[in-house]
Amino acid sequence: MAQCEVCGNDYDMSFEVHAQGAVHVFDSFECAIQRMAPICERCGVRIVGHGVQAGRSWFCCAHCARQEGADTIVDRVGIPSQQGAQ
User: Fold this and answer.
1) How far is residue 3 CA from its own chain's centroid?
2) Is the pTM of this model over 0.70?
3) Residues sharing a CB contact under 8 Å with residue 32, sequence separation 6 or more, in sequence order
4) Does pLDDT of 16 surpass 70?
5) Nearest Cα to 9, choosing from 31, 40, 38, 24?
6) What is the rounded distance in angstroms from the CA atom of residue 36 to the CA atom of residue 3?
7) What is the pLDDT of residues 48-75, one digit of tens each?
8) Sequence spans of domains, the chain
9) CB contact set of 20 (below 8 Å; sequence gap of 6+)
10) Which of 76, 77, 80, 45 is nearest to 59 (CA)?
């Protein structure tokens, strides 16, 4: 058994995540997300999906990135703009 580094649970089904030269031990995906998922620099939500990167900053979506000045980031490439649509 191994102890979760987030909640301290000593669990027989814990798992390891190897990232950037370090080994982390968790008892659930929830704890792994709390420790390892980046946080959107605008709204503070944990980025569990792909997210978007602008320079060295991470955001949960293109909207948050644009609100922080990354105006070239879009959610879906090739989709016509909704501006002016009725």
Assistant:
1) 24
2) yes
3) 6, 17, 24, 26
4) yes
5) 31
6) 17
7) 998 999 999 999 999 999 999 998 888 7
8) 1-36, 38-76
9) none
10) 45
